[in-house]
Amino acid sequence: MEALNQNEQRELQTRMEKKQIKEFMTMYSKLVQNCFDSCVNDFTSKSLHTREENCVMRCVDKHQKASERVSLRFQEQNAALMQSGQLPGR
Predict the structure, then answer these.
(1) Which residues contact 12 (CB under 8 A, 6 or more apart)?
(2) In Å, what is the CA distance from 22 to each residue of 19, 30, 71?
(3) Mean pLDDT score of the chain
């Protein structure tokens, strides 16, 4: 980013932020769709039944824990690469 002037840096930062928001919203949408499809199957009532609500809570918890685990592994690998000086693109 050092080769970019201030305006270009701001533009790049704005684009990166928009991309992150879009990726988060896509991930959130997929999570909602996945848990809904897996857990909600009785449409005779306006509200969720206890069984469906518990299923949704477990589903969201499972995805959240998996995401945290992947993030931790990514951070560990990134730290190991930095220590060994093997960062991609350098």
Answers:
(1) 1, 4
(2) 5, 12, 18
(3) 90
